[in-house]
Amino acid sequence: MEELGKSRVIVRNIESGLGIIIPSRRQYFVLAFLLFWICGWTIGGISAISALLIDNVPLTAQTFMLFWLGGWALGWFFAATTILWQLFGEEVIIVTSGVLTIYRRLIFDFGKKMYAVANVKNMEHTPHTESSFFQKHSQNTSIFGVPAVSFDYGAKSVRLGRGLDNAEVRMLLGTMKKKIPSVFSD
């Protein structure tokens, strides 16, 4: 018999309202590939830095090597951030009677946005569809997960719940509906 699925969503009652933590979804193939890749990439960077320190390298070679190391550093940073996000990242949602706060946490909090609950409307499940290359690679799709919940905030759509399964979304929306029913369109 198939084992019953467990939600990654952690819901806690906090002093001022409701705290919801959504740990990042681990993509094991991506994680294994990047762990292997970053080892080779690090060795390449060390070799390039070592080559720069040799006294008899021509100026054009040194210039190219510095340019290459800039790209190397960006690639290394992206891979390391992705690995850390997959292992330790989480999306945090705090719901109080007047404010909905959403941010991501990885070593430190970033991307913190606060929304007046009175202006939050039409919170709903937004199933992910990939109908074109551009939608598949838009700003809302990434290795950090695809947002599964959206709401209207004035003339802007806000998305949250990166990487959640449909069942997890229904559980999350049910929990939020109990706390702030005014944000749902019935």
Profile the largest sheet: 5 strands, antiparallel
DSSP summary: helix tally: 4
Q: Mean pLDDT across all residues, rounded?
A: 85
Give the strand tally: 8
What does this molecule look like?
This protein is an alpha+beta fold. It has two domains: 10-23 and 117-183, no CATH class; 29-87. 39% of the residues lie in helices and 30% in strands. The protein contains four helices and eight strands. The protein has helices at residues 28-52, 59-88, 133-136, 166-179; strands at residues 10-14, 17-23, 90-96, 99-106, 108-116, 120-125, 147-153, 156-162. Strands 1-2-3-4-5 form a five-stranded antiparallel β-sheet. A three-stranded antiparallel β-sheet has the order 6-7-8, covered by helices on one side. A hairpin with a 2-residue loop joins β3 and β4. 13% of the residues are buried.
Write the layout of secondary structure elements.
Layout lengths: L9 E5 L2 E7 L4 H25 L6 H30 L1 E7 L2 E8 L1 E9 L3 E6 L7 H4 L10 E7 L2 E7 L3 H14 L7
Antiparallel strand pairs: 1-2, 2-3, 3-4, 4-5, 6-7, 7-8
